[in-house]
Amino acid sequence: MAEATPLELAGRAVELASARGADQCDAIAFSHTESTVSIRLGDIEKLIEATSHSLGLRVIAGGRTAVCSTSDFTPAAFEQFVAETVELARISAPDEYAGLPEPELLASAGGDALQLYDERIESLPLDDRIDMARSCEAAALGFDSRITNSEGASLSTRVGEVALANSRGFAAGYPATSISLSTEALADDEDGKKRNAWWFSAERNLRSLLDPETLGRIAAQRAVDQLGARKTDTKRVPVIFEPMMAARLAGDVAGCATGGALYRGATFLAGRTGEAIGSPLVTIVDDPTQPARAGSRPFDGEGVTAHRNVLFQEGRFEGFLFDCYTARRMDARTTGSAQRGVSSLPEPGPANLIFEPGDTPAEDIVADTQEGLLVTALMGFGFNPTTGDYSRGVGGFWIENGQIAYPVAEANISGDVASMLAGVDAVGSDLTWFGSSAAPTVRVAEMTVSGV
Amino acid sequence: MASRLLRTFATMTRMSDPSHEAQQFFAQRYGIDSARIASLLSDALAQGGDFAELFFEHRTNGAISLEDQQIKSALRSVEQGVGIRVVKGDSIGYAYTESLDPEAMRLAAGTAARIGDGGERPTAIDTTPVGASESFYGEDALLSDEPAPAKVALLERADRAARAFDPSIARVDASIADERKVVLVARSDGQIVGDVQPLMRFNVMALSERGENRQTARTGGGGRLGVEYFDRVTPEDTAREAARQAVLLQDAVDAPAGEVPVVLAAGDSGILLHEAIGHGLEADFNRKGTSNYTDRIGHAVASDLVTVIDDATIEESRGSINVDDEGNPTKRNTLIEGGILRGYLHDEISARHFNAEPTGSGRRQSFKHPIMPRMTNTYMLPGPSTPDEVVASVERGIYCVSFSGGQVNISNGDFVFSTTEAYLIEKGQITAPLRTTNLIGNGPEALSRVSMVANDYALSDGRWTCGKEGQSVPVGVGLPTVLVSAMTVGGTQLG
């Protein structure tokens, strides 16, 4: 029933599956209460509140794997669900690499030290939530007379618990909270186009959340800054990624640095471990042990103790992120990087991805650029992980003589990720966190910018 | 043959009135009958809401994946629940629960009801079950009823065909996925309507390896139909297409950078419409005045060669639905006619705001998500030219065939979409294949630059999923061969 905790449900699924013939199995269970308040032009647009429970069961029998998920925990339905999962495993082929983590890799500590739970979020009154969203939007609308409209402001919270149990005796769970606030402001440009900008803050605890009014003003400032945006010439110039965009670039790189991409042959990093790919300014790490961060976790989606992994150390590619399956396939060790939802197999991926800062103030990077493009928005999916070919729509600012000359729209940057990493010639000291990723300002010495 | 006949008969009975079948399903399985529905709607309106709606959903998803000649895993998930929406003016209260027992649903209704301002509980609500008049879904055997070994055999056929296509094909991954979604919408205006929505998809990824050079390509298709899909597009067809694209990329050259004429091939290029104009015509953005097409009805927003339709009634297409997720019947909506903007895509709230007829465009990802106006199958009608004439007219430009995705800024119409198969056009001839690149533009500007439209309209095979505000829904796109006289191409080759 719904009253059972995720830990109890996961444990019961493992018990039942083992009794039905699973050689190995694990179950991950979530329960959470989500609450969203959306304000638009001062009025309540949406109030959403719901509690949700779900469980995913992985069964391995004779080397064959099945994964099933359910949210129906009435006893008869739950037993049938487990039986069907065990039965479904017959379909797949025996796979010598399938299996749970070796017992010595399993985590022993819970999540207390990571500060993943903030009781103030659970008890935050509805009126306070409404006030936070309302003052965020009001700050954006009142920031500048050229701000003429708003997509509204939303405050969302999640209070929940995640638990994992497996047939090797692992059973652990932890409570977690999250809170996020976002708003989008619009300004009318002279050519009839609208210039919009969105900003957000996402944290584990209320105390770290960006002040609502500050957040609103940032969104408004960014929208106003885009007024008069125009196309630019097509040429090769230095490209500066502001921190949020540098974090996106790091995310693209990290997606290629996973055991899943490696064994599928779908990464330009295959066979390049130990190679100097980036410039010495490039250090990228994945660190699930950072206190109170959105991606922090005491153990990964298979129960393996989470720890810090270095992807690039001063330009050198140090290795891939693995879960158990991909590690065994590639004759490596899991890095405790299994991501896990209820309805899919574990897949390795980053938890908190950090592009480490340098010591150059960000403004000096712009001042030091004769002509170039400062990127503040990225669009589209033009990235090929297999080859590293990179082509993205961008918005931002043209730089001339070390100063912002004018805002830019409808432009594109292209190159390949390996050359981009090698071409990083400045890294700012302005490390900024965005949920589960962090990056400073990063400059790539030269890329092709397409415009007219 | 006997079992096949039986199965066909059974599905035809079901498909003849999916609305009735959905009502029976929830009544028998969960005891959700007219009385329970009326009582929940009354709870939802107990605090003075203007309108309430219950959206019951039971969804089963199955998938089998083959990786490198092995069936790696089998997946199955079942999700059920009810989403309860209460509208008060322009404000929405929303709650959902995965438990369909009476007490859990009553609590959720009470939570959603809080948006009201303390008015009175309404008098009894009369409910009227409505049958769907027509079904646009395939009527053969559902893929979800197909035995697993038959699905595995389809995957193995794809693997063999891709490898046989070219010796450089070193790895093939394939997957087959099916979904069966039973929905029931009950509204406080008394209407109760349901639907049973099948959806299937077949995907193949091929890796071509020549020495150190690796290229991957993915393709796939499907729709709202069953195993008969494979009579039209065999696993071999899909596999060879993925292999062909991967091999082609081995010889790809860098794309040009800057503005050039762009020819969009028929079919998947319809992503241009989806990004360049479709989202901007979803009326929630226009209601809020945040779309670049706000207040533009009756105005020229595209070249006079451009007529754009959104049509949820195309048989078996991935984007088709019999009724929308607010229970309104779907239809064929003309958005742009000869370059003139004719209308928006509405959900109930925006239709009321604009005093317009609902267009059957209210959609949601699941019971956990509130309604928004969304596209279904969006396409451009064919024009007078032949595809050859269109290509021959270009001195130097690019020809785009397939895409990995696109994105638009709805407020100003700036969009990007990314090619996976594209070629140079030199002196009116299609020549070298190009590496992954982007097309960048602005919606109204790109559509005003549509200077030729060919007579070869095609709808995409069922492979597109549209994301908006975190909600994903299946859609279709379609286009004839079209010339856009100038668009920015994000390659690396200057001049």
Written description of the protein model:
The complex is a heterodimer of chains A (452) and B (495). With 452 residues, chain A is of the alpha+beta class. In chain A, strands 3-2-1-4-5-6 form a six-stranded antiparallel sheet. Chain A has a six-stranded mixed sheet with strand order 10-9-8-13-20-19, with helices on one face. The N and C termini of chain A lie far apart (62 Å). Chain A folds into two domains: 6-225, PmbA/TldD fold, CATH 3.30.2290.10; 229-452, no CATH class. The mean pLDDT of chain A is 95. Chain A is 22% helix and 38% strand. Chain B has 495 residues and is of the alpha+beta class. Chain B folds into two domains: 2-249, PmbA/TldD fold; 257-490, no CATH class. In chain B, strands 1, 2, 3, 4, 5, 6 and 7 form a seven-stranded mixed sheet that branches. In chain B, strands 9, 10, 11, 14, 20, 21 and 22 form a seven-stranded mixed sheet that branches. Chain B has a five-stranded mixed β-barrel with strand order 8-15-16-18-23. The radius of gyration of chain B is 24 Å and the shape is globular. In chain B, 63% of the residues are buried. The model of chain B is unreliable at 1-15 (pLDDT under 50). The chains are: A alpha+beta (452), B alpha+beta (495). At the A-B interface, strand 2, strand 3, helix 2, strand 6 and strand 15 of A face strand 1, strand 2, strand 3, helix 4 and helix 5 of B.
Distance between the termini of chain B: 63 Å
Q: What is the H level of CATH, i.e. the homologous superfamily of the largest domain in chain B?
A: PmbA/TldD superfamily
Gyration radius of chain B, to the nearest Å? 24 Å
Content-based structural category of chain A: alpha+beta
Taken together, the total number of domains of chain A comes to: 2
Largest interface: A-B, 77 and 79 residues
**Secondary structure: number of strands of chain A:** 21
Largest sheet of chain B: 7 strands, mixed
In spatial order, strands of the major sheet of chain A run: 3-2-1-4-5-6
Mind telling me the C-alpha Rg of chain A? 24 Å
Spans of chain B of at least 5 consecutive residues whose pLDDT stays below 50 are 1-15
State mean pLDDT of chain A (0 to 100 scale).
95
Instruction: Give the second-level CATH assignment, the architecture of the largest domain in chain B.
Output: 2-Layer Sandwich
Q: By helix and strand content of chain B, what is the structural category?
A: alpha+beta
The top level CATH class name of the largest domain in chain B: Alpha Beta
The portion of residues assigned to helices of chain B is: 10-25%
Shape of chain B: globular
Q: What is the count of β-strands of chain B?
A: 23
